[in-house]
């Protein structure tokens, strides 16, 4: 059930699973909702009701849409069940009727659930769609994938199978000579009835076609011999995968043609049906890139003697102060969710681990309705002993990010291409030795550009963007470090500069003019820490276990927090952080 | 502030930072607490007040100790500050007085905080204690570490420096010939005054002694030339590191000697002052082993084409049903913390990612006061498409754990030795091809041993332990898989067996008779899923976004959840899971 709040009234309507498609009449039935305009694509009808919530920046006032927290009403669920049963019965009856007369009936049909419940292993081998190429010419292979598209009828049907974003065309054709035939009318009919996104096993012979195949990733065909449906998708989906995979360029082309009109799937519709949305080639690629970023992050740090730690997310008191915490009851004690592993990773340094890192969730209860804030995101945190200077942290950071960027460009070529196909972006420009500018130098650049700012204030999003553009223009890099921020704009645990206490040993790191990393040398002296906290009006008592850690001897240290989703978003210039969070959480979204 | 609840009354007393040690009188002063018995070691006095809470199994009734949620009262904080200032002033005065007359005064003393605030880099190089050996004989090195122990006076002082669990002895000696001297009386006095756990920089010459050095890990000495204190620890610590690092064998030895008595540091005291406790060689090793386990886990899976994902911890509804969830308010919506990534990792499979894994926190609000339950722990989760059989999951698991165990034994030798030193354990016995027994075979083994159990019930902790012993005896392995559990004792999403619906395609994995992993083939058919959930009385409506994922076509799949802390605890036979969680959370512990 989705709840749609309009003008203070709350009413509910069932979603995808109640759009049922009857093959006989081709009509679409909605329940407890007015029927959409005839001829209007289904996805649009659904989309309209979910518009606006996550399309980049937005204000809470604009947020009229309560999220699809999705509790299906019992009545609707029962209705749905009855319908599904009817459909299933009809499908079985049809298939049985056809099969009776078909000598090839054993070569197609629905796999019984019982046959998928870990019966003794058959020894069959499945081949990945991604590896199908001309080297396999003439070989019989078995693939399992989704029914992406089906077209044609009569004696010929093309079934495109998609697996993890890769596609292959399977051709089923009835030959004129009966005795050669491996394909029957019944089989063609069965394939034509397959619903999109159903999981099918196809056995066929790899063949290299005369002409290049457009519309599939693989440049060979399968001459289909057998086809079995492993799992049926409901006949009508919340949206079509092809629609969800189109680029702006596609829409532009369509706009130039009178007879072509594409359905646009909005961000909120995508996120409401995220499992479906994630199947597009671009999304398949985005999360493989994200996985690769974590891997490269860890690989670099492990090579530098960092220890991976896991700090608690449930903590007493506010982790770093401030109001933007999620509060909860912990067995009768007031608790909150950690806004970052800041305090505990510093405590790990005080506990002699020397160099530590953590990859874990970070919780922010802020009401930030922007393209770059989430209420839960993945923090890549590191903290390390330094001997003399926060430059030691910058050196690690520098080496690490160059290794991440190099690694992505080298190992994720296919993924970056797939993303580029739907969301074109300029490759990231970065230097082998990362540019470091002081905050003062940054302000000077802006001043020369006509923007004068408070020398001890913070940069806002706009000035950060502008500075990014100026830096790119002058130094030819999208990636740089800005350091020695004013002390006043940094947290209490930031170490002031030795030569000017109005500045601090802190830094931000930017990609394409947006911040992805914040870091600093920390205050390791307990007295200074207390006085800094007091100066900022922070309740020192609530931080006593943290502050005590420094009373038992503490090495000078520094560290950083990186937002994983931001790194991927900005590396690929994706413009909305919801694209790089698998199941994003923002002030209004708690599902799916 | 720690809150100690006795007979319903709550009163508070300040901890470590208010035990101040006055060098003049050697007396210990407690504030707002009766003074401990004269002569009784401090740690014991503190310990007694924290006894019992986490020593293995315990009942809530026994739990008289409210945790050190640690909010230092303002009064106590101010008192503490005044005392620290006094001490600091006294120390500076003493050191200044000495220095005036000392020509070597520049070679020792406290480093000013200003000199640690990232001044221009000096170019000095620090050497790790762990690499100091005879190959460096005669070389001058600079080390930074903790003042572990200081002994001797007059013309000779031994300063043991500890860094990340490794120790080196530094010898400072005044030579008879004045002109040769690099060490002065003032320096000796300064070193003798260093408080334990303070961070010091020592410059000295590596020397190979005539006799082996007992009591340090490194078998060379440093002939000290310079010593600077980087960060001072408070003079009296909550407990001594030597006490925290003793093994049962040490205590047994002491019991045999009349004049020797060791202080025992209890689990709760350790956990209340965890930063200090983590500095023992065994703890340094435990968390390095833990870090290595995650690394090997990931390394194996990445090699098998798994994608790392990050699923939300904030979710609407109870993640898998059941009451043991932490609830919170999410911007006006009721929410809870995920009990596992179960639902979302399955949704990632429905989203075509094929094979996924996640390392992240898992939250359980259960009132389990045992040696093996935590309210927050680190889950190593994986989920994968299977073609035919849950054995495909077991094959991955098998290869992975053998690679983890082999990897630990090969690469963590020093760490395992350090753990063994304090907590002796038998090395884990495991087979290169992991033993798989069916649940029925397991029951049969127990039956032969005289224990008859309900064939469709679950095993309890006791019968699991017993079965572990029987398996070890019969098959010579501490690590094995028990599969085909009764359906009735598994979650609703578990796939029943094809040949007998009273059993399921599920498994647990055991180390030393304790469960570390639970897994299964999952139900991928939405109708069966709904009917299984209904059969178990679960509110299907609250799971609709999850169930819908299967309506859009779903591949057969299976997966497992591994408890990281349990793996380390049981590999090293550590007997209490609090030992393998850096900052553990149990029903009564939310700090530090």
Automatic annotation (TrEMBL), chains A, B:
Residues 62-100 form a coiled coil. One of its GO terms (cellular component) is aminoacyl-tRNA synthetase multienzyme complex. Residues 287-584 form the Aminoacyl-transfer RNA synthetases class-II family profile domain. CDD domains: AspRS_cyto_N, AsxRS_core. Its EC number is 6.1.1.12. Gene3D superfamilies: Bira Bifunctional Protein, Domain 2, Nucleic acid-binding proteins. InterPro entries: Aa-tRNA-synt_II (IPR004364), aa-tRNA-synth_II (IPR006195), aa-tRNA-synth_II/BPL/LPL (IPR045864), Asp-tRNA_synthase_2 (IPR004523), Asp/Asn-tRNA-synth_IIb (IPR002312), NA-bd_OB-fold (IPR012340), NA-bd_OB_tRNA (IPR004365). Its main location: cytoplasm. It is found in: Cytoplasm. GO terms for biological process: aspartyl-tRNA aminoacylation. It comes from the Eukaryota. Signal peptide: none annotated. It holds the Pfam family tRNA-synt_2. Keywords: Aminoacyl-tRNA synthetase, ATP-binding, Coiled coil, Cytoplasm, Ligase, Nucleotide-binding, Protein biosynthesis. GO terms for molecular function: aspartate-tRNA ligase activity; ATP binding; RNA binding. It catalyses: tRNA(Asp) + L-aspartate + ATP = L-aspartyl-tRNA(Asp) + AMP + diphosphate. Belongs to the class-II aminoacyl-tRNA synthetase family. Type 2 subfamily. PANTHER family: ASPARTATE--TRNA LIGASE, CYTOPLASMIC, ASPARTYL-TRNA SYNTHETASE. This is aspartate--tRNA ligase. It comes from Adiantum capillus-veneris (Maidenhair fern).
């Amino acid at each position: 059930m989705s709840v749609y709040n309009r003008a203070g009234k709350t009413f509910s309507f069932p979603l995808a699973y109640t759009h049922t498609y009857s093959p006989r009449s081709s009509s679409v039935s909605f329940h407890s909702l007015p029927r959409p305009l005839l001829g209007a694509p289904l996805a649009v009808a659904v989309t309209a009701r979910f518009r606006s919530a996550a399309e980049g920046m937005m204000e809470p006032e604009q947020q009229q849409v309560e999220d699809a927290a999705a509790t299906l009403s019992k009545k609707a669920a029962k209705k749905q069940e009855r319908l599904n049963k009817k459909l299933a019965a009809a499908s079985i009856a049809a298939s049985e009727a056809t099969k009776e007369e078909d000598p090839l009936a054993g070569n197609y049909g629905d796999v019984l659930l019982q046959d998928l419940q870990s019966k003794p292993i058959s020894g069959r081998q499945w081949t990945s769609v991604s590896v199908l190429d001309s080297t396999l010419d003439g070989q019989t292979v078995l693939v399992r994938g989704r029914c992406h598209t089906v077209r044609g009828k009569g004696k010929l049907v093309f079934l495109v199978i998609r697996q993890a974003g890769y596609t292959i065309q399977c051709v089923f054709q009835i030959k004129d000579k009966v005795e050669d035939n491996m394909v029957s009318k019944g089989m063609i009919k069965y394939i034509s009835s397959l619903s999109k996104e159903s999981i099918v096993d196809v056995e066929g012979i790899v063949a290299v076609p005369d002409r290049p195949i457009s519309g599939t990733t693989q440049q060979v065909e399968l001459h289909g011999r057998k086809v079995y449906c492993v799992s049926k998708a409901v006949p009508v989906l919340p949206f079509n995968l092809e629609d969800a995979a189109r680029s702006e360029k596609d829409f532009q082309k369509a706009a130039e043609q009178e007879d072509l009109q594409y359905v646009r799937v909005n961000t909120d519709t995508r996120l409401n049906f995220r499992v479906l949305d994630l199947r597009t080639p671009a999304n398949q690629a985005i999360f493989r890139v994200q996985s690769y970023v974590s891997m490269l992050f860890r690989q670099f740090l492990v090579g530098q003697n960092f220890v991976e730690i896991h700090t608690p997310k449930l903590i007493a008191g506010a982790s770093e102060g401030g109001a933007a915490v999620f509060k909860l009851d912990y067995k009768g004690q007031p608790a909150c969710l950690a806004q970052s592993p800041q305090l505990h990773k510093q405590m790990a340094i005080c506990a002699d681990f020397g160099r530590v890192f953590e990859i874990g969730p970070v919780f922010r209860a802020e009401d930030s309705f922007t393209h770059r804030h989430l209420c839960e995101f993945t923090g890549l945190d590191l903290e390390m002993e330094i001997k003399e200077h926060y430059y030691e942290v910058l050196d690690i950071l520098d080496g690490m990010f160059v290794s991440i960027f190099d690694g992505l460009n080298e190992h994720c070529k296919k993924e970056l291409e797939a993303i580029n196909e739907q969301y074109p972006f300029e490759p990231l420009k970065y230097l082998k030795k990362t540019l470091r500018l002081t905050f003062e130098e940054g302000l000077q650049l802006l001043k020369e550009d006509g923007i004068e700012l408070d020398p001890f204030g913070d940069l806002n999003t706009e000035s950060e963007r502008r500075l990014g553009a100026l830096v790119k223009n002058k130094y030819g890099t999208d990636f740089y470090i800005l350091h020695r921020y004013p002390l006043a704009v940094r947290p209490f645990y930031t170490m002031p500069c030795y030569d000017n206490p109005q500045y601090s040993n802190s830094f931000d790191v930017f990609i394409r003019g947006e911040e992805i990393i914040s870091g600093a040398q920390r205050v390791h002296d307990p007295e200074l820490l207390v006085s800094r906290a007091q100066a900022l009006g922070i309740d020192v008592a609530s931080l006593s276990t943290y502050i005590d850690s420094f009373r038992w001897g503490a090495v000078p240290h520094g560290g950083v927090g990186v937002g994983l989703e931001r790194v991927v978003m900005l590396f690929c210039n994706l413009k909305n952080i919801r694209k790089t969070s698998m199941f994003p959480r923002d002030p209004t979204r708690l599902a799916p």
